[in-house]
Amino acid sequence: MTEADLDLDVDLEGEFEPEDLQGPKPVAHVGPPVLVVDDLHIVYRVFGGKARAAAKSGAANVRAAKVEKPSFVKRLLSSGSGHVGAVSEVHAVRGISFVARHGEAIGIVGVNGSGKSTLLRAVAGLIPPASGSVYVDGEPALLGVNAALMPQLTGERNIMIGGLALGMTPQEVDERFDEVVEFADIGDFVYLPMKTYSSGMAARLRFAISSAARPEILMIDEALATGDAAFKARSKARIDEVRKNAGTVFLVSHSIATIEAMCTRVLWVHQGQLVMDGPADEVAEAYKEFVRAHRRANTSARAGGVGPRARSKRRNREVAEAKTGDATPSDGQATDAADAKPTAE
Ligand SMILES: Nc1ncnc2c1ncn2[C@@H]1O[C@H](COP(=O)(O)OP(=O)(O)OP(=O)(O)O)[C@@H](O)[C@H]1O
Question: What does the alpha-carbon distance between residue 195 and residue 109 come to, in Å, rounded to a whole number?
Answer without folding.
Answer: 30
